[in-house]
């Protein structure tokens, strides 16, 4: 089962996709946000292109566990995505995913300009990878 992972942001959406077996997450692209209908269309295109059966959206939380300021808008986007595609949408705690992505890119000695171009898709990959790992453990 192929799963799409999204790291939502106010300016960009990082996108990752799993392999067909649902074991490996791979960073795919970054969508520059324009407006909600256009963003939704672009994500729906990716759902069809990759034949996705499930979508995981990073759910922002504060360190104390409270939902972040953008949480409601991400859930609303997920509901629209579900209505448009009919596939399940799961919300996954994204706390510190961007920090982890930044650390990983710094360890790889990537230049600042290039980091800015890829950080959202790397964060989406980390969100998706964490979800896939959790799902495998649930199936054991």
Automatic annotation (TrEMBL):
GO BP field: rRNA 5'-end processing
Keyword match Cell cycle: no
Keyword line: Cytoplasm, Hydrolase, Nuclease, Ribosome biogenesis
One Pfam family it belongs to: RuvX
EC number: 3.1.-.-
Highest taxon of the lineage: Bacteria
SMART domains: YqgFc (SM00732)
GO MF term list: hydrolase activity, acting on ester bonds; nuclease activity
Keyword Hydrolase: yes
Location of the protein in the cell: Cytoplasm
Segments forming domain YqgF/RNase H-like: 1-101
Main location: cytoplasm
One GO cellular component term noted in the UniProt record for this chain: cytosol
UniProt-listed NCBIfam families: RNAse_H_YqgF (TIGR00250)
Family assignment from sequence similarity: Belongs to the YqgF HJR family.
Task performed by this protein: Could be a nuclease involved in processing of the 5'-end of pre-16S rRNA.
Protein name per its UniProtKB record: Putative pre-16S rRNA nuclease
Source organism (scientific name): Syntrophaceticus schinkii
